[in-house]
Amino acid sequence: MTHEARHLNIKPWTAAAAARRALLLVLVALPTYVAASYTASILPNGGGTVLEFILILMFAVLFAWISLGFWTAMLGFYSLLRGVDGVLSGSSLRPLEIDATARTAILVPVFNEDVREVFARLRVTLESLQRAGRLDLFDVYVLSDSNDPDRWVQEEAAWAELRAVTGFERVYYRRRRNNIKRKSGNVADWCRRWGAAYRYMVVFDADSLMSGETLIKLVTVMEERPNIGILQTAPACVNRDTFIARVQQFANRLYGPMYAAGQHFWQLGDAQFWGHNAILRVSPFMQHCALAKLPGRPPLGGDILSHDFVEAALMRRAGYGVWLAHDLGGSYEEVPPTLLDELKRDRRWCQGNLQHLRLLRMPRVIPLHRLLFVNGAMAYGSALLWF
């Protein structure tokens, strides 16, 4: 079956999305109204002064934001109880013979990482692909932005060893001398050099790990549904043994699947891209998802740090769906092992998410992605409102 024929068979999902979002709006708005009304009733002037009005308004915004997370989890709980969602389900895919022209690149951007661990995870992925029988579809690119000369030597030695041990020669290594725009610039540089030779790219983080079966299923979905631009998995956290990391892994395994199912329930084809453990259609990504610098100086100007949310919005603006394959297993990542590492990552996320407020007026972005920009900023801006 051709790509065009399969495209005609895709059922529209926008009607289901509208109904589910209307349900979510009611579930969020009604408790928020009740809570805000009760708050006004216990204030001395019943919300009649400017100060009390501002207080009630901030309370309503915060209550609605928390309520959105709560009902997302509850809808996910309902979705998991109900079973397979007929709109898009990765686990229920029928077998599809993947065309040999569906070339897919696995991109592994690294920056002064633990070289032994990075290449060990990559070796596991390659061996899993080999057991799955479709190693021929994939090429691997280790894209280094490392600025430590000792790391360069270690990376090149590990790369040569990986090729020798696995016997797989289509593992390529490239180190940029000028690492502008960090990871997004690294991927963009790969797209300019080699992107035209591939139909898809699977973007990893340095701590990512995926099974061969999952990688093949991702390509299968993209082949079956040509209107999908980005297909994001919900990675499970693994392999850490420090206390803070074990707590995060436990939380991820306990409520992560439920929350991801809830996000899929109401976002459908307007989902988010988390920057890793996802497959992207290369041609529209190159054509529509280039990122310019924000005017002004950091922290709110300069390079866009949380580039993944913006790339999802641009892909959706171009008419391609962005989906969360919440029910696909075999996708993993590692969390920061220490509190200091966690705070460094969180500071970067804070800066990037707050930058999104400057993109709310970006032309032709769908309303839901503008809402997701605000939701991401609230993860950090809410602290100021609570204060």
Shape: globular
Termini separation? 58 Å
Q: Structural class of the secondary elements?
A: alpha/beta
Q: Sheet bearing the most strands, described?
A: 7 strands, mixed
Global mean pLDDT: 90
Please report the number of helical segments: 12
Oligomer: single chain
Q: pLDDT under 50 segments (min length 5)? A: 1-10
- How are helices and strands ordered from N to C? HHHEHEHEHEEHEEHEHHEEHH
Bin the strand percentage: 5-15%
Order of adjacent strands in the largest pleated sheet: 3-2-1-4-8-6-9
Would you count the extended β strands for me?
10
Radius of gyration, taken over Cα atoms and rounded to an integer in Å: 22 Å
Outline:
The chain is of the alpha/beta class and 387 residues long. It contains twelve helices and ten strands.
Q: Can you walk me through this structure?
A:
The structure is a single chain. The chain is of the alpha/beta class and 387 residues long. The strands form 2 sheets. Strands 3-2-1-4-8-6-9 form a 7-stranded mixed β-sheet, sandwiched between helices. Strand 1, helix 4 and strand 2 form a beta-alpha-beta unit.
